[in-house]
UniProtKB/TrEMBL annotation:
Presence of keyword Aminoacyl-tRNA synthetase: no
Top-level division of the source organism's lineage: Bacteria
InterPro entries: DinB, DinB/YfiT-like
The protein's name in its UniProt record: Damage-inducible protein DinB
SUPFAM superfamilies: DinB/YfiT-like putative metalloenzymes (SSF109854)
Alphabetized GO MF terms: metal ion binding
UniProt keyword list: Metal-binding
Sites where the protein binds a divalent metal cation: H50, H146, H150
Family statement: Belongs to the DinB family.
Length: 185
């Protein structure tokens, strides 16, 4: 799998997992969703919020690249989070709608990326204002890995609440080369 295909697969996996994760979270009542369970961001809601915050921070950074100005333009008016736990939405339905918009943006953006875009360098400042310059492809791998890391925490929090997410592996979206091709109408 080449780098472009990998980025697109990760964007698809991100969207697919978030749809499942938010549907599972919606089965919990307010108290269970907001109960501090000792996770990095306290509760399941805090963890889901953090992923949205971090995605927003990174997408706004990526949006400064010339090749991303058009595709990521919807983020221009999105306020930059002041902290990694800054509240983005007041409740799960609002956070779900926001997540869905971000995921659509991520998959649309991934579909436009070229190898030259992945080879670009991104100068940015971290949340403490410390400047850095890194390769875009490497940063995208961090971006998707961060999502997966915290979704793993979220699935643990769901499990602790009695909600079984089932299998969550990327492997589920990778075609088995031994399977016959699926005919499309």
């Amino acid at each position: 799998m080449d780098r472009i295909a990998h980025v697109r697969a990760m964007a698809h996996y991100n969207r697919w997992m978030n749809e499942r994760l938010y549907a599972a979270a919606a089965t919990l009542d307010h108290d269970a969703l907001h109960a501090d369970r000792g996770a990095f961001f306290g509760s399941l809601f805090g963890t889901l919020n953090h992923i949205v915050v971090a995605d927003t921070v990174w997408l706004k950074r990526f949006a400064t690249l010339p090749a991303c100005l058009t595709t990521l333009a919807p983020l221009r008016d999105e306020p930059q989070p002041a902290a990694l736990d800054a509240p983005r939405c007041p409740n799960l339905p609002a956070l779900t709608a926001h997540r869905e918009k971000l995921d659509a943006l991520i998959t649309d953006w991934a579909s436009t990326l070229t190898d030259a875009d992945l080879d670009a360098v991104l100068p940015y400042q971290n949340m403490r204002g410390i400047p850095a310059t890194r390769n875009v492809f490497a940063l995208l791998m961090h971006f998707f890995n961060h999502q997966t890391h915290h979704r793993g925490q979220a699935t643990t929090l769901l499990s602790q609440s009695g909600v079984d997410m089932g299998a969550t592996d990327l492997l589920l979206l990778i075609p088995d080369l031994n399977d016959p091709p699926v005919a499309t109408p």
